[in-house]
Amino acid sequence: MVSTGLLPSIFNRLQRYRPSLGRNPEEDFFTEVFVAVLERDRSLLGAFVKFITGLNVLDAAIVTQQRFALPGVLAAERPDIVITAHCLAQKRHCIFIESKLESTEGDEQLNRYSKLLEEHVAADSKMLVYVTKHPEGKKEITLGHGVQFRQLRWYEIYAFIMSLQGIETANPLLRELSVYMREMKMTFQITIAELLAGVIHAQARATYWEILDQAWERSKIHKFFDDRKKLEGKWLTSELDDGDINYFSPSLPKAKLLLVFGFHFDMTSPGQLGLDVTGHELPVLYVALSHWEDRTSAINAHGEFYRSLSKRGWLDGNTLNLQSRQVVIRKQAPVSLAPPGALGDYLANALTEMLDDLSDAPFFT
Fold it and tell me: In whole angstroms, what is the distance from residue 172 CA to residue 164 CA?
């Protein structure tokens, strides 16, 4: 499936890797390791191309740090990974992949790569892929003509690798890569112990923000907030103020809305959920929406919607904060000690389901 010829050893590839000015050594090192594993397994590389593009390819080649010297441009462009492939119709496909672990996009980096693909790469289909360890939404990409864009997270690629039945056993290098990705925390696998550590140690709370970011990315209503051009202020965060780790949406004065979602810790009754660690317990997931409208008028106008939420377990939040001139709706759920599947996905999906309960709200149209 892959035409490779004689490959240099992995050790030679890593020896050729060396940190350079303006580049992230950890990211470059991981890129070399990742590509070394893919280029040695024809089935894996073909499956990876299909995972990204949906195409079944006959052959493929993968390289790192390929230089593209452009006329009139002093510094050459060097996408992290370039894949070229051919399918049954002998059409040529080219994929640029830019990878980020702890850093973020360089100045106009994706726009430059898109223009490079459009104007200087000959292929029947062209795709620019941006892979990050952390959430980094991209909405302002200027795509060149005929260039597709896809954004992925490294935990999705890890899940793809693990979905290939038997490949870990058959390919010892892939097994080592999967272990390395787990060690680099690129898998979105979270344990109960890590959740509890986040309660006690501030430096361990990144786990919670990762879950909240995942839930928001997956929700249907994030577009309503993200597409508003004139938000008053920015998203705010709270970290164990009043026992919460949560996000506050920007103010939406015309829609008269405020959204809050996150984790709540009841510090007054440790062990309520059956697990007590130094006076702390597992958190409760919750979503709350405040609708600043005269309460009677709002209920008259949107009563059917509020009644539908009540049937799905939402509560009248005004009993919690006594702000009678607004409607507050709230839903919460305990964290399960034995969730189905991966804990991180379970928590993110549970929050996403609550957020999506609000997607058909009449004031989100």
Answer: 14
Please tell me the distance from the alpha carbon of residue 260 to that of residue 270, in angstroms, as a whole number.
24
Between CA 309 and CA 322 the distance in angstroms is 20
The pTM assigned to this predicted structure is: 0.69
Q: CA-to-CA distance for 184 and 176, rounded, in angstroms?
A: 12
Across-strand partners of 334? 284
Q: What is the CA radius of gyration of the chain?
A: 24
Mind listing the pLDDT tens digit for each residue in 244-264?
Answer: 788 887 766 666 778 888 888
Give the start-end residues of each E strand in 216-280.
236-241, 244-248, 257-264
Residues 218, 288: Cα–Cα separation, whole Å: 17
The single residue listed with the structure tokens 């952390």 is 134
Per-chain mean pLDDT for the chain: 77
- 337 pLDDT band, cuts 50/70/90, is low
CA gap 111, 182 in Å, rounded: 31
C-alpha span between 344 and 231 (Å, rounded): 30
Structure token pair of residue 320: 């919690």
How, if at all, do strands 57-64 and 125-132 pair? unpaired
DSSP 124-181: SEEEEEEEESS--------PPTTEEEEEEEHHHHHHHHHHSTTHHHH-HHHHHHHHHH
Quote the CA–CA distance of 344 and 57 in Å, as a whole number.
33
Strand positions, DSSP E, 284-324:
284-291, 315-316
Is pLDDT of 63 > 90?
yes
Q: What is the pLDDT of residues 180-190, one digit of tens each?
A: 998 888 887 77
Long-range contacts of 27-31 (CB under 8 A, 24+ apart): 27/80, 27/99, 27/100, 27/101, 27/102, 27/103, 28/65, 28/80, 30/99, 30/101, 30/180, 30/184, 31/64, 31/80, 31/81, 31/99
Residues 6 or more apart whose Cβ sits within 8 Å of residue 34:
81, 99, 177
Look at phi and psi of residue 8 and say left if phi exceeds 0, alpha if psi is from -120 to 50, else beta.
beta
